[in-house]
Amino acid sequence: MQNQYYNPEINILLCRCRMVSVSRDWRKDNFLPDSFWRFYYHPHENVRIICESQVKLIPAGAAALIPPGTKLAHNMAQNFKQFYIHFLTAEPYRHCRPGVYLIDTDVALKTLLDELIPEAENREAYPPTCGFSIRLEALCGIALSRIPEVCLEQNNLHRAVQAAINYIDKHYRENLSNERLARVSGMATNSFIRLFHQKTGVAPQQYLKKKRIEQAAVLLRYTDKSIAEIADECGFATRYHFSRVFKQVNGYAPAEFRSFDFSSTI
After folding, report:
1. How far apart are the C-alpha atoms of 203 and 216, rounded to whole Å?
2. Which end of the chain is more exposed for a tag (fewer CB within 10 A), N or C?
């Protein structure tokens, strides 16, 4: 019998529990990679964050999920303690309406948090254990299950456009012409380009470039791979081409971005 259960393919990038400093570099707030999910939990105090130019409150003891593509900065006058997870996941959760989704910390979540936070506080001292990693995935899975399905952007996109986006997300390393994407979508090339732009606000090749740069930013921050390796892995012909496009899109060269200290960002 074929397995029909959904596999979220949760990939943990980072988990920490630390004090967030109120002194920060606004450049890094604006350039912090946001192509992944973020889980936040503040055990002791209310935390105000700026989300899409609006101030949002995360109450003490509440958890929050922030989808990829949501721009954030904190709006606090003093340092605050934060437990957080950065993670990737499979469709349909790769594309969700931006915002801050408060998650009830019921018994299941609270039990996991009580187990994970002490170990996360000592995370720098030793690598994560298998059990710790599995509990992190369980925590992220439970939180994702609380996101209303109406907020998933896949439900709001044209079938052909969604097919192209899914294909780009899986094959962005390859040479993806508009003709190839149109074939995946089952449409004529010109009609596909017009529909894609109409539904997403960008041309297919712009979306592809954005996807490559987002993935490169994740690899720069969360891996030790060389810039040349990252350029190749993200579909750029050369390191020079990658560096030029990366700076064109973000305003910073890859090496400059990699040198940033993100300890004051959320």
Report:
1. 20
2. N
Q: Residue range 63-91: average pLDDT? A: 87
| Tokens encoding 106 | 């019921």
The Cα 263–Cα 266 span in angstroms is: 8
Cα–Cα distance, 112 to 140 (Å, whole number): 10
Output the pLDDT for position 191. 93
Pairing relationship of beta strands 72-74 and 101-103 according to DSSP bridges: unpaired
Three-state helix/strand/coil letters over 229-244 = HHHHHCCCCCHHHHHH
Residue with token string 């700076």: 247
| 187 alpha-carbon distance from chain centroid | 30
Q: Tokens standing for 227?
A: 């810039």
Q: What secondary structure letter does DSSP report for 13?
A: E
First to last CA, the chain: 44
AA letter at 146: R
Give the span between the Cα atoms of 47 and 58, in whole angstroms.
5
- Copy the structure tokens of residue 249: 């899109």
For residue 28, the model assigns a pLDDT of 47
Residue type, 214: E
Crossing angle of helices 178-185 and 204-222, in 10° steps, is 100
Phi, psi of 205 (to 5 degrees): -70, -30
Exposed, middle or buried, 67 (CB in 10 Å: 0-12/13-18/19+)? buried
**Considering the chain, what percentage of its residues have pLDDT values greater than 90?**
46
Q: Which residues of 229-246 are buried (b: 16+ CB within 10 A; e: fewer)?
A: ebbbbbbbeebeebbebb
| Average of per-residue pLDDT across 229-236 | 94
Which of 71-80, 90-99, 230-239 comes out lowest in average pLDDT?
A: 71-80
- Residue 76's pLDDT is 81
Question: Which of 34-38, 177-181, 204-208 comes out lowest in average pLDDT?
Answer: 34-38
